[in-house]
Design a protein that fits this description.
608 residues, mainly beta, 9-stranded antiparallel β-sheet, 6-stranded mixed β-sheet, globular, binds MU-OXO-diiron, binds calcium ion
Length: 608
């Protein structure tokens, strides 16, 4: 195993200050465009009227709390999704965007003003929420230096809580996934908690089901007979906890007392083909069931594909899947089922900087009948328990995991874990409020590592926090430049969440939780190799209350798409009295989660 190679410092943009106000901020010499906001129509130029919004309208409008963004190139002459994706077109494409969750108090007037103090869970509101979650596919094109949403494109589509989906892989059809509405256990309506995601080289999009537990209400003690085993399973996923969304009051499938198994049909990764607006999304049970942050793929010709995926919760694990079959860049059809057959592993980190991938395979180690695993389906449905039993390392909330296309090293975002009392390998700070980033090296050389191998080395790439913090658990650790340069007062950050690499291999980190450190979330860029390794610079700052998601470049690196999620989400802020109304600042509109397109004025690579 060798270290990571040189990258020159190609990030010459002028750093911005930490953000502290109601606006978003970009470096001098850059322009930002609000491309799409919650409620904007996907089919016409109608203005959004939130007071009269219906579920039917929301079903054809941009959803709430945009998160993952995938730019999928479009070209005129393509026979299939892989040809579109491989075209690398940076002027025209499909933006595929997750809508993670709804916030009714910021979406609806009077939501929290009921006389009895109870939340106003009106059936009409919940129906709108169901259509505001999920995913948007919309065609976009670059005209000069401005992006345009093609409002009447046949590609435009919403995926919501009511979209039919197929369940595939070893858990499909298992009795634990069978419900009154679907005795086959293979068909489910909708997807929930769509946080980050991923893209495949065969032109499909992966969307994660993360914080889905809050959609389900009910008493775990009601689970009896065969269903009694779901008590522990559901408790591990915060199902039936007090902070649920009350959806089950109006829709029985979200009440475990009425439908005890519906919750087993969520918590998966979902794959779909954005180039076919009628394609049916598939839930991939091979990748396990937990609070998936996202999944990113490493695909090399003639080798199995590797999919990295994290479970964003305190003391949970990170995983990789290795396909049974090989990736063939010249044979579209042969790639379509790659994510449906293979082996899932959980990571174990050792104190000496080594690590290993432990197989989650029924019949091996503790994954046997005696411990309540009676099939591979049981292992996948109760992935958290299985990973714990085989000795995977509990981590500080694994968010995005992604492999740098230049050096082929893999990076794990560990956002924070204030509950940590004792350390684990790779999780070195108790009460870790600032988060950190690990670097994973598989055997091989820079630019060519074998991700299918079951041994790896790890090291700490960055510790979040101020580099001189008096609190040792919040003291940051960053790189030092060739002339002794250290991170600036604006370059340090905390709580890393989403991650993207530009085509030169620079790492772009989006944060979720910097308010604890008295500035707003944003985006920081840094090389992962060379003299400026791990020396971040601040590129984008959020308006108050927001986190930043999705960073996604066009293939030419000249546009950066960003998702500003939950703007104005602060104490006491409501639809009727928000702390601000980003991005419209119009008294007739509430604050609206929005996607931005950022370009350098006059063109050029973002970051230069
Ligand atoms: Fe939805 Fe893990 O952030
Ligand atoms: Ca996230
Ligand atoms: Ca997060
Ligand atoms: Ca979020």
């Amino acid at each position: 195993l060798s270290g990571c190679s040189d990258q020159s410092n190609s990030l010459s943009f002028t750093e911005i200050p930490h953000s502290l106000d109601h606006q978003h901020h970009i470096p001098e010499g850059y322009q930002s465009q609000v491309l799409m906001s919650w409620g904007d129509s996907l089919s016409n130029e109608d203005t959004f009227a939130p007071a009269t919004l219906t579920a039917e309208q929301q079903a054809t409008r941009f959803g709430y709390n945009n998160d993952f963004i995938g730019f999928m190139p479009l070209q005129d002459k393509a026979d299939n999704s892989m040809q579109h994706a491989k075209s690398g077109n940076s002027q025209r494409g499909l933006l595929c965007i997750n809508h993670e969750y709804t916030q009714p108090h910021l979406m609806f007037s009077g939501y929290q003003n009921e006389e009895d103090g109870e939340l106003n869970t009106r059936k009409e509101h919940i129906a709108i929420e169901h259509q505001a979650c999920g995913h948007t596919i919309m065609e976009v094109a670059l005209d000069g230096d401005q992006w345009r949403v093609i409002k009447d494109s046949d590609y435009n589509r919403r995926i919501t809580v009511t979209t039919p989906m197929q369940i595939t892989g070893p858990a499909a059809g298992n009795p634990r996934l069978q419900t009154a509405a679907d005795p086959t256990g293979t068909e489910v309506y909708g997807t929930l908690g769509n946080c980050a995601g991923g893209k495949t080289p065969w032109g499909t999009v992966l969307i994660a089901e993360e914080g889905f537990g809050g959609a389900f209400m009910g008493d775990l003690n009601s689970l009896q007979g065969d269903d009694a085993k779901e008590r522990d399973n559901y408790e591990r996923l915060s199902i039936g906890s007090s902070d649920n969304r009350q959806w089950g009051k109006h829709e029985p499938r979200f009440n475990i007392e009425k439908e005890p198994r519906e919750a087993n049909r969520f918590g998966w990764m979902v794959e779909f083909n954005p180039y076919d607006p009628h394609s049916k999304p598939r839930k991939l049970t091979t990748l396990g069931r937990f609070e998936h942050e996202g999944t990113t793929i490493v695909a090399k010709p003639g080798q199995p594909i590797v999919a990295y995926t994290g479970d964003d919760d305190e003391f949970q694990f990170f995983y990789k899947f290795v396909s049974s079959n090989n990736y063939n860049p010249d044979d579209y059809e042969s790639n379509l089922g790659l994510l449906e057959e293979g082996t899932l592993y959980a990571a174990r980190l050792n104190e000496d900087g080594s690590g290993e991938w432990l197989p989650l395979v029924y019949g091996q180690s503790f994954l046997i009948d005696r411990f309540g695993f009676h099939s591979q389906a049981d292992v996948l449905i109760e992935c958290r328990r299985a990973a714990e039993m085989i000795g995977a390392t509990p981590m500080d909330r694994p968010e995005d995991i992604e492999t740098n296309p230049v050096n082929d090293c893999t990076y794990v975002m560990l956002t924070k874990n204030k509950k940590r009392k004792t350390t684990d390998p790779g999780n070195m700070r108790p009460k870790n409020t600032a988060g950190h980033i690990l670097e994973i090296l598989h055997p091989g050389k820079d630019g060519n590592r074998d991700h299918t191998q079951l041994k790896f080395n790890w090291n700490t790439f960055i510790l979040g926090g101020h580099p001189n913090s008096g609190n040792q658990n919040e003291r940051g650790f960053y790189g030092t430049g060739p002339k002794g340069e250290t991170v600036t007062e604006d370059g340090w950050f905390a709580t890393p969440d989403n991650l993207a690499f530009d085509k030169l291999g620079n790492m772009w980190v989006a944060t979720d939780g910097c308010e604890k450190f008295h500035f707003h979330d944003g985006l920081w860029a840094m090389p992962t190799s060379g003299p400026y390794r791990a020396l971040p610079k601040h590129f984008f700052g959020c308006p108050l209350g927001a986190e930043i998601c999705g960073p996604e470049f066009t293939p030419d690196g000249e546009t950066l798409f960003l998702a500003v999620q939950h703007p104005a989400d602060a104490d006491g802020s409501t639809f009727d009295n928000p702390v601000h109304r980003w991005p419209d600042f119009d008294d007739s509109l509430p604050p609206r989660p929005s996607v931005l397109a950022i370009r350098k004025k006059g063109g050029g690579r973002v970051g230069s």
